[in-house]
Amino acid sequence: MKYKLIFLLVLWGISPAFAQTLQSAGGDRNSFPDPMAPKDPNAPKPVANGKSGRAALDDSTKMLYGPQTMSYFNEEDVLNGRGAKKSVDTSLHLFHRYLFQERSGFLTAHLGTEGTAVRNIFVKKPDQIGTQLGYNAYMPYAFATDEVKYYQSKSPYSDIEYYLGAGGQTRLNFTFARNVDSLWNMGFEIQRQVSDKFLTDSKYKSGNQTLTEQWGVLFQTNFRTRNNRYRLLSHLNYFDQGIQDQGGLQLLNGLDPTTALNYTDNGALFATSGVQSNDSFIKFHFYHEFIGFKGLQFFQRVDVENRTAKFKDLDFATNLTKSFYSKNFSSQTDSLYNENQWQSYTHQTGIKGIFRGFTYRTYFKQRYWDVNNPMAGLQKNRLENYVGLFLQQKFNDKIDFTADGEYLVGSDYRLQASFISPFFQVKASRISVSPSIAQNWTYNAAFRWNQSFDNVLFDELTGTLDLHTKNVYFRPTATIQRIANYAYFDTLSTAKQAADAIGVFRTGFSAGGTFKRFEWSALVLANTKTGPDVIRMPSLVANANLALNVQYKKLLYMQFGVDVQHQSAYFADSYMPTIQQFHLQDRYEIPAFVQADAYVTLRINRVRLFFKMQNVTQGLLNSNYYTAYLHPAMARSFGYGVRWLLFD
């Protein structure tokens, strides 16, 4: 019945009666001119052979399409009444950063290879209030609702990406969008991602080297009426992630973690290849609005989600003896299963408007969620009621003040405000959020608890200065966080709650610029904290990029560069795949490391390519390093990729 409901909603959301509009985001940071930049298609065409009128029109007269004839936007732009059109990125700037961890500015960490579990290096405030499932290790790889691009194009648009890195880290993305007419656009995006094992196990030895496999499919559409009074955005999002968990490298014969980094043929802790995780979901999202007057508009959102997170260990008894699991709650020892089936249904209805630079939005939202553990035969559910308010005053195009609040009746709340100017930015927030299902309720053969943690309270204040000249920018920043009732997973992977508040202070800067043919950028963050030692973060994180721009006959544009990242030593978290949680470990302090990647990027017309030697300094500045406890980073390796934009 649930799938039938989703199917009917999809048909309603993407039927020809409804469609799609304009798009945004991105920005061209390329200092090179684009030789294929299209001219205004409405501009007069040159007259051939001195002829005019009908005599000048022949089969050779063509309209050029390109980045300037299409645009995109996000739902947030429509919701807040911003009409700015965003252009697709065609630059070479940081194009070589093709892995998710690299695209995050090296502020996330995985288990050594793309497609494995992901965590943030620094603690982050929650994105939303209300009870969440809490199984988020693979969600960064999925298409996010607030990042979906809705297009408006005068010609069919395609974006083809293919990246092949070491260890079989392969990703293929294909995006297609086109206007059905001037008011309706529709399209889709497909993502395929795989990676290979670099720790040996039984399947690896028999020729099956696949570690992760992932599919992502997104169908999106947007539509507006000719008088712009009605607008609709909708998408269907499918995600399926599978992984043969390896548990990290196995320390045999008294081998210690530091010495193990010197070997390239380390065996996996889960030697029999009997451990697998799967996380999949299908989400339907629908947004529409009606503009009665500029100061009074009506909007509505609908979200339907169906998700299943599974884990199985067919060699549970052996892994118990290896102390990977601390306890066995069941008499059955041959296997371990964990599964959570999650459904949620959300509708949000409200009014909004704009009057002389003042924007407001208020709404009422209801959300029903249901989680079922079929192994335990247990189920939990709840109906949540929310109210929200958004206020923004734009003093001019560069200065504005924003205040935003949301309240879950009887429980959570979120309050945040920001002031943005050309010279500085200040953001403050206070969030009280319910613990996740994973933190409050878990039931399987190795982990069981049913508890009622208090709400976690996050206070955060961030300030940034913006200092710049024509060719250089420098942005010092500072963040202060206070976290009370912090929920975490201890060294035994058991959910706990801190009794005392935790203070975090982080300061640093981002900088960059150009000098003749050189361009550079850098990010430096220093971090310290007080209170219980239940959040482990490095005290210093830094990365920098230096590139030399070379142009050949206005046809070939190249960058020769080097990427460098550094991270100080700290007791990085370990990972428990059974419950998709990173947890504390006191066994081994991950050493500090410096990694350098050398690369060459090229652009020929609208085709961009890169060739990259990753971890090129391995064995020079240091040996390899760990991204998480007993999970080594990818050793020195070669990768390449291509991205091709098509506009007709």
TrEMBL record:
Keywords: Signal. Residues 24-54 are annotated as: Disordered. Residues 35-44 have a biased composition (Pro residues). The keyword Signal applies. Residues 1-19 form the signal peptide. InterPro entries: Porin_10. This is Porin.
